[in-house]
Every structure is written in C-alpha cells, then in structure tokens.
Write a structure and sequence with these properties.
3 domains; two-stranded antiparallel sheet; DUF8039; Probable_transposase_24
Length: about 325
C-alpha cells in the first residue's frame, strides 16, 4: 500500500470521516474479542497475546487491553447496547447503503431520480421471504403510512426541513440526514434541493424559449429558404470534427437536466451516461466524485459528460476527445 496519497481538498473531509469510522469499527471488533476471552477465563494471557495486531507496540497494546477490559468500559458498552436495542425501526439495506441503492435503482429505472423519502421507505422494508417489500415491523409500517399521506398533500414542500421524513421524525440533527447515508449534512442537501428547484424553473423557461425559436425558424424556412444556405439534406448526419478522439463507449442513461449523478444535479450542459467500455483510460473526468477520478474508474457506472462531446453516430463522448454510446 502507498504511505502517502494526493487528495483533492474537496474530498479530504469525507475521506477522513470514513477513515475514522473504519478505525472505530476495528476497535469495536477487537474489544468484543477481548471481552469474550476475559469472560471465558481460560488461558486469558495467552489468548490476549494472540489477539495483538502487528502494528501497536507492547506498551500500546497493554494500555488498550487495560481500558477495554475495565469495569468502566464494560458499563459504558452496556449502556450503548441498551440504547441501540431501543431502536424501533431496523435499517434493512445492509452494507449496500442508501447511495449504492439509489445508484442501482437509477440504472434499473432508465435514469429517473428517487427522493430521500422513497429511499428511507425502501431502507425499512423486508428484503427476503414471503413478506418481501413490506415494512420491517409495525413501527415502520406506521411511519411509512404517515409519510405516504404527507406525499399526497397538495403543494408539498421540497425543503428537507418540511418533507414527509422531517414531518414525521422532526428536524434532522447536525451532521447526518435520514435516507441519504454517510457523509451528508442537512445544509448540503437543502442547498442541493433548492438548486434543483431553481434549475427546473430555469429549464422550463428555457424550453419555452426554444419552442418559440423553433417555430420562428420553421416559419422563416418556409418564407425565406434563401436565408439558410448549405443546410444538410434530409437524412444527412453531421459528423464530429476529425481532430476529436473517441475515449469510451457508453449508453445515455438520462438527458433530464434535473436528474442526479452521485448526489449532484446533472445540469443543462451534460447528459448522464452509463460507461460500457473505456478506450483511453487516463482521461480525467469532467466532474470527478469521491469515488471516481478517471474514466477507467467508471466502467459499469454512470457519469456526467458534456453533451457537446457526445457523438450519436456511433454513438459517442469527449474532452475534445469523444465518448461514444
């Protein structure tokens, strides 16, 4: 493994939080093993020595064992376990998480987007057995029923502070958001939703302007065909400049400017494409994410790519090099 990584500033906070979470999970796993050894009371010293990882020194390991096998730590652990046992609605998406479930759902549903309310509901349904797709328990069934009622209300707000999840559970706590997953904050989601609403409004206005322009051009072509010299005849395709290089083959997943690509709005200048085959692996992504940096990282996933660099003859996308779909 590398001892040093060069990471963009925009990803550092998320990566450090992820490292911290993994570190805490590892310590928790070691602590459970230590308590089992101590509770068993058989050859305790030898078993504790065998559990020692390679990295810590003997002094660090002895201090860790002392803290984790103390009565104070055992009491704290029992308190946390009791609090967890009080959770009335278990999460059922396992390690897949909300983000991966949303990604797979978008692919399966032709680029459509799913709201955080529907994500939360899916995360609290049974995944197996005869009752698959039904709420995990009575408490979840009641919550889902109330959320469905809120969704049906007219003029339902798009704000994260007033959507069905927040109406049922109350405001989100700082640093986490129900139905979204790890590494997301309420302020970021709120800004994203407001931006999406504004973008939809702008796109609606832009579509109306385009319709007017198309109608005007149609009328002008009929009245003054001399104003449009050199137009290609019917059925003739415009080919991309020969200087462009095809970098990948892809399928267009969505052209909806308000759809999401890895929790970011697509925007008016891009299409959402599903990368099938990469021809030039070292191409930097137009819009990097916390998971993907170069084109080769995205095989089998969706990315945002400028539609002016997509050729629909083969069909294709670029950077002044083309990505083909």
């Amino acid at each position: 493994m590398m001892k040093k990584y060069v990471i963009e500033d925009c990803y550092k906070k998320f990566i450090l939080r992820l490292i911290g979470k993994s570190w805490r999970n590892w310590k928790s796993s070691i602590s459970r093993s230590l308590r089992k050894v101590v509770d068993a009371g058989v050859d305790v010293s030898r078993c504790i020595t065998l559990l020692k990882p390679d990295e810590p020194t003997d002094r660090e390991w002895d201090e860790f064992v002392k803290i984790r096998t103390s009565d104070q730590f055992k009491e704290l652990s029992q308190t946390k376990q009791a609090a967890r046992a009080k959770q009335t609605m278990p999460y059922t998406l396992s390690r897949k998480g909300y983000a991966r479930y949303e990604h797979n759902w978008t692919i399966e549903n032709a680029g459509k987007s799913i709201s955080r309310v529907d994500l939360w509901i899916e995360g609290h349904k049974k995944r197996k057995g005869e009752n698959r797709g039904k709420p995990i328990n009575d408490a979840a069934e009641k919550a889902i029923s109330e959320m469905e009622k809120y969704k049906e209300l007219p003029n339902s707000s798009t704000s994260i502070n007033e959507d069905p999840v927040s109406k049922y559970f109350g405001p989100e706590s700082s640093g986490s958001v129900r139905g979204i997953g790890f590494g997301v904050t309420p302020s970021k989601i709120e800004a994203q939703l407001q931006n999406k609403t504004w973008m939809q409004s702008v796109m609606n206005e832009l579509n109306e302007v385009r319709k007017t322009q198309d109608l005007t051009q149609k009328i002008l072509r009929e009245l003054r065909p001399d104003m449009f010299p050199g137009e290609p005849s019917t059925g003739e395709a415009l080919t991309p400049p020969s200087t462009r290089q095809v970098v990948a083959k892809a399928e267009v997943a969505s052209t909806d400017s308000t759809s999401m690509v890895h929790h970011v709005i697509l925007g008016p200048d891009c299409y959402k494409v599903w990368v099938k085959e990469v021809l030039v692996p070292d191409v930097t992504l137009f819009r990097a994410s916390r998971e993907f940096f170069t084109l080769v990282d995205t095989i089998g996933s969706t990315i945002a790519w400028p539609h002016k660099y997509i050729s629909f003859e083969e069909i294709q996308v670029s950077t002044n090099r083309l990505l083909s779909s």
